[in-house]
Amino acid sequence: MTTDDDALARAAAGGDRDAFAALLGRHYDRLFAFALRLTGHRAEAEDLTQDICLALPAKLRGFRGDARFTTWLYRVAVNAAHDRRRRAATHAKAADGWGDWEVARRAADAETQDATGWLAQAMTALKPDLRDTAILLLAEELTQAEAALVLGISEGTVAWRMSEVKKALRARAAEEL
Predict the structure, then answer these.
(1) How many Å apart are CA 50 and CA 40, to the nearest integer?
(2) What is the pLDDT of residue 30?
(3) Is 159 exposed, middle or buried (0-12, 13-18, 19+ CB in 10 A)?
(4) With contact defined as beta carbons under 8 Å apart, do 35 and 45 qualify?
(5) Burial letters for 37-73: b for 16+ Cβ neighbours within 10 Å, e otherwise?
(6) pLDDT in tens, 15-55
(7) Rounded to whole angstroms, how far apart are CA atoms 62 and 105?
(8) 84-98 burial by CB neighbour count: b if 16+ within 10 A, else e?
(9) Helix axis angle, 155-176 relative to 144-151, nearest 10°?
(10) What is the pLDDT of residues 115-144, one digit of tens each?
(11) Distances (CA, A) of 12 to 100, 117, 171, 177
(12) Environment class of residue 172 by beta-carbon count within 10 Å: exposed (0-12), middle (13-18) or buried (19+)?
């Protein structure tokens, strides 16, 4: 008999290692794929996924079951990605002007970005809130209601953000013609 995610989450929150392992077994690949879409870089997605998995036992104590476990997990992932972006921005600002090493690192980042497709580049150029919303709806195939729960915003805001995503992508495509 298969145990549902909510029951596993409650058991894992209580310290049941087998329940935690079962949750990770079910959701690790999806979580990694989501992290990859959020970050746009495999290595960064691997780090983000590991950060989430390490924090998950403590975070599970706060799981109330108000939403599906997967919706809650997406929310945890979005928050972790936002935290990581803030840390990266702080580190980039602190590292600015650190000579040849920084120039080489930025050049390597530029090469990586050149290797990705147009849409991936266009998505990374979006503001993080727009990118997160688009990924949840388009790649993860959540409904607007589910995405609103994950992001902690209204469904109307989700719809507005998707409108802004479309405008930004059209503008970028027009610039490149």
Answers:
(1) 16
(2) 93
(3) middle
(4) yes
(5) bbbbbeebbeebbebbeeebeebbeebeeebebbbbb
(6) 999 999 999 999 999 999 999 998 888 999 999 999 999 99
(7) 38
(8) beeeeeeeeeeeeee
(9) 100
(10) 456 777 788 888 999 999 998 998 888 999
(11) 47, 39, 47, 53
(12) middle
- 40 in helix, strand or coil? coil
CA distance 171 to 164: 10
User: What pLDDT does 1 receive?
Assistant: 47
At 115 the pLDDT is 45
Pick from 164, 106, 109: which is nearest to 132 by CA? 164
- The per-residue pLDDT for 48 is 93
Which ranges of 14-95 would DSSP assign to H, the alpha helix? 17-39, 42-60, 69-95
For 77-102, the pLDDT digits (tens) are: 999 999 888 887 777 776 665 566 66
Q: C-alpha distances in angstroms, 109 versus 50, 64, 115?
A: 22, 40, 10
Alpha-carbon gap, residue 29 to 9, rounded angstroms: 17
The residue whose two tokens read 């727009």 is: 130
> Which DSSP symbol is given to 34?
H
Beta-carbon-side half-sphere exposure of residue 55 (alpha carbons within 13 Å): 16
